[in-house]
């Protein structure tokens, strides 16, 4: 993937400004560190999937005249789309690092550091998003612009849901797994699903192939999110209990089986002095119920749907690689 936009003078200037945050506790620093030291190696997963599905689909019979633009079985426009997808994802990661000044405590450090960090998060995220939009316009494909623009709208809506939930101190939303899936589609799956579909549109593939690419992106990223949510409950090696969201899939499913009132009672029993949460106690309560096993089943269900969508593509190394990504996020033993 070309990273020319990440090596530009403007972004170098942003990087210099972000260095001023070193020594503070602003979360933008953690986001920046994640770009350099990503332990799970999934930072560029979305761009990689767009490139792989482009290669798996190959050239369209309707666009034989454009095959001279292909390199290693991928059109140049599809490579640009992979960059755009990564830029949008990165921009939203940066924007998520904005701190709620009203909820700061004295242990979080000086207010001016947090205010400066917020300004940098807004400006650098906007810069990346503006670059993505410029590149998107250069593709000169109205349907692709429409698809990716709607994915940006979905992301905003999904993050709005997340933020409106997190304002409730230590309590969860009264939602069922169907609502959870709708919200996770917006915040985690829409960008990849619509980027996969857009990659097929750029190669002028049929509506059926576009739909299968969309399904693969949707179900694979749903599996990826479920796998991530399950980590605090399935990791055996960790001695310290990982903090987890009370709106994660195992917790939502646990609440669905247990009942809202009983779940709230368990949360309150796990709250200590100063509303500090005993996550180990909550983790054991969720493990004792059906939430974890049901979330694993759901993860594998979405994985199987992603694999079924791949059957529409001819056998190839790229298709095998896409299947391996699904196998990786549905393996728990």
From TrEMBL:
Respond yes or no to whether keyword Acyltransferase is given for this record: no
Keywords on record: Transferase
What is a single cellular component term in the Gene Ontology annotation? Answer: mitochondrion
What residue range is the signal peptide?
none
Which GO annotations describe the biological process of this protein?
Answer: isoprenoid biosynthetic process; ubiquinone biosynthetic process
Q: Which domain of life is it from?
A: Eukaryota
Q: Name one GO molecular function term.
A: prenyltransferase activity
**Protein family:** Belongs to the FPP/GGPP synthase family.
User: What is the protein name stated in its UniProt record?
Assistant: Decaprenyl diphosphate synthase subunit 2
Source organism (scientific name): Chrysolophus pictus
């Amino acid at each position: 993937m070309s990273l020319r936009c990440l090596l530009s003078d403007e972004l170098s200037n942003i990087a210099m400004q972000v260095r001023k945050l070193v020594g503070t506790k602003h979360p933008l620093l953690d986001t920046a560190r994640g770009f350099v030291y990503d332990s799970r190696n999934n930072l560029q997963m979305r761009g990689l999937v767009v490139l792989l599905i482009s290669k798996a689909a190959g050239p369209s019979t309707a666009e034989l005249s454009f095959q001279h633009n292909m390199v290693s079985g991928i059109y140049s426009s599809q490579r640009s789309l992979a960059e755009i997808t990564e830029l949008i994802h990165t921009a939203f990661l940066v924007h998520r690092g904005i701190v709620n000044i009203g909820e700061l405590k004295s242990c979080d450090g000086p207010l001016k550091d947090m205010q400066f960090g917020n300004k940098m998060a807004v400006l650098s995220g906007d810069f990346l998003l503006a670059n993505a939009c410029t590149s998107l316009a250069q593709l000169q494909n109205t349907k692709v612009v429409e698809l990716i623009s709607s994915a940006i709208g979905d992301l905003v809506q999904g993050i709005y849901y997340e933020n409106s939930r997190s304002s409730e101190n230590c309590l969860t939303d009264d939602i069922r797994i169907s609502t959870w899936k709708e919200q996770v589609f917006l915040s985690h799956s829409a960008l990849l699903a619509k980027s996969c579909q857009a990659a097929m549109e750029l190669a002028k593939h049929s509506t059926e192939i576009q739909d299968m690419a969309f399904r693969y992106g949707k179900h694979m990223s749903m599996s990826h999110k479920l796998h991530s949510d399950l980590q605090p409950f399935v990791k055996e090696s960790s001695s310290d209990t990982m903090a987890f969201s009370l709106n994660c899939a195992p917790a939502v499913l646990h609440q669905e089986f247990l009942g809202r009132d009983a779940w709230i009672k368990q949360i309150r029993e796990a709250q200590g002095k100063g509303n500090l949460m005993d996550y180990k106690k909550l983790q054991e309560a969720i493990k004792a119920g059906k939430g974890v096993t049901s979330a694993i089943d759901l993860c594998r269900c979405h994985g199987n749907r992603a694999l079924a969508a791949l059957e529409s593509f001819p056998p190839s190394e790229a298709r095998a690689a896409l299947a391996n990504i699904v196998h990786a996020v549905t393996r728990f033993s």
